[in-house]
Amino acid sequence: MQPQPFQPQVLVAGAGPTGLVLALGLARRGVTVRIIDQASGPGQASRAMVVHARTLEFYRQLGFAQQVVDLGIPIHAVHLREDGEEAAELPLGDIGADLSPYPFVLSFPQDEHERLLVEQLRAAGVEVEWNTALEHLEQDEWGVRAVLLQGAQRVNTSATYLCGCDGVHSSTRHALGLAFDGGTYDHLYYVADVHTACANRDIMVHLDANSFALMLPVRTAGMQRLIGIVPETGSDNVIFDDLRPRLEALLGIAIDQVNWFSTYRVHHRVAASFRVDRVFLAGDAAHVHSPAGGQGMNTGIGDAVNLAWKLAQVLRGDADAALLDTYEPERIAFARKLVATTDRAFQLIVAQGAGGRLLRNWLVPHVLPALAGFDAARRALFRTISQVRIHYHDSALSGGRAGEIIGGDRLPWVPGPDGADGHDNFAPLQTLDWQLHVYGAIDPQLAALAAALHLPLRAWPWTEAAEQAGLLEDAAYLLRPDLHVALALPRQETDVLQELIERWGLQFGDDTAGGGQRG
Q1: Bridge-partner residues for 34, per DSSP?
Q2: I want to staple 387 with a disulfide (CB 3.0 to 4.6 A). Which of 54, 332, 451, 461 is the partner?
Q3: Angle between the 53-62 and 17-27 helix axes, to the nearest 10 degrees?
Q4: How far apart are CA 209 and CA 225, in angstroms?
């Protein structure tokens, strides 16, 4: 075996969206990282299509959200079809207006998504090592040693930490001997990229007992992604022409070209643990579930964001190693809930019994569109699908309540004056650091402590928009690097702030240019 001269602080196995975002988040924070993947390059076709608002908020922090938006296709509506006819329309548009700077659902194919992330990572000085698989790993108190398989050659490497982002069949998870409990749906799925005569920019959904077909726009006008369940034939050997007549009738389309077609089985599983000492799991290596709601890829990216800043803080000596203990409980709780809810939703959608018929024939086509006409219902729907509602209330890093905001919540978005771009309360978060926010007047005691700690302190005048977002006037909010509130301090309590900082051994940068700065 040949020794590998480059010994990174973090080895990332898997260069899908989860691994790429993790590596990028580490590299941007000055961590040396090595990322490998057994594939020969980014995917040429993909199943994940939807990029939700929470992911775009993370990408804004990293500086390329607008590129993703420009390359993607915002979805304007969902059309519900039954027996080949439209049954109802659910308008989307800017469904999350006033909740996020990205108040829409975006279609952006995973293969293009991956290529963009690879380019961003290259700009940060890291190249993906393709055709490289993780063959073996072992660890001790000093680090992780791994054997990589590059073609026929085995290469030794080591790192302080290893992150397995290597998919459903994760070599990392297998090497750790972790259970991956759950199951596999009985249904066989298909996915295809096709060209149609219509330039559809909406989502078309057909629902029926044991049948599900979805179409959404991808890439250029006329190119569509089809996803659904293969009718039971007793065989997995299905070609697209077996499905074409039924799909054209159900979705009201004429297909003139098939660019890609595949069938696959869907699992619903969660790993027994997301961490074993110095090795972490993220993305599909840790959890997989039904495609309901387009949550899978976005959840993996959320894992990556959560883990990246914590690893960087520990490796830079800016936090105690105990900070890493918060990754698993924060992310595994959400993964378990997501797997359970998407499983229930999907099983009900395709159920043959009375409950399934009630959902498909009455609730979905009639009640859901009616509710969508109410602002409160639209906001609730956006919060659910966009992942802006994810919170870590039970985390050891979270505490306090100020207004409607509880420690662990995502920081609510407050637009800038008159919607001025770049002047909202998310703009300062691109520094990727801890910071304090105050909406109103800063207490001199808090200002003095923040200056002494080199903790950026930013304030905005109290506005109606801040109140509507659930914030409390003159309260202070300690923000983690991932846009979540660690502490909500209704009276700007400096003793509570100091206790949390001492507990986790947190240290902050010496750039005090933002201290007391008004946004």
Answers
A1: 11
A2: 54
A3: 30
A4: 22
Give residues with Cβ within 8 angstroms of 79, minimum separation 6.
Answer: 86, 88, 89, 90, 202, 203, 204, 205
Assigned token pair, 518: 């008004």
Hey, which bits of 449-510 come out as E strands?
Answer: 457-460, 476-479, 485-489
What is the SS3 assignment for 162? Answer: strand
Higher pLDDT, 340 or 160: 160
Strand spans (E) along 9-84: 10-13, 33-36, 50-51, 73-75, 77-82
Distance CA 335, CA 287 (A): 6
Closest of 483, 473, 467 to residue 443, by C-alpha: 473
Pairwise CA distance, residues 357 & 377, whole Å: 23
Please report where in the chains the tokens 């870590």 appear, as a residue: 392
Q: Which residue has the higher pLDDT, 84 or 311?
A: 311
- What is the amino acid identity at position 502? E
- Describe the crossing of helices 296-315 and 327-350 by its angle, rounded to 10 degrees: 180
Residue linked to tokens 């992780």? 144
At 16-38, the pLDDT tens digits run 999 999 999 999 999 999 999 99
Helix (H, G, I), strand (E, B) or coil at 361: helix
Helices 53-62 and 296-315 sit at what angle, rounded to 10 degrees? Answer: 30
Nearest to 484 by CA among 54, 70, 53: 54
Strand partners, 217: 224
Q: Looking at 383-493, which runs of residues are DSSP E strands?
A: 399-402, 405-406, 435-439, 457-460, 476-479, 485-489
Tell me the β-bridge partners of 396: none
pLDDT band at 354 (very low <50, low <70, confident <90, very high): very low
Strands 105-107 and 287-288: unpaired
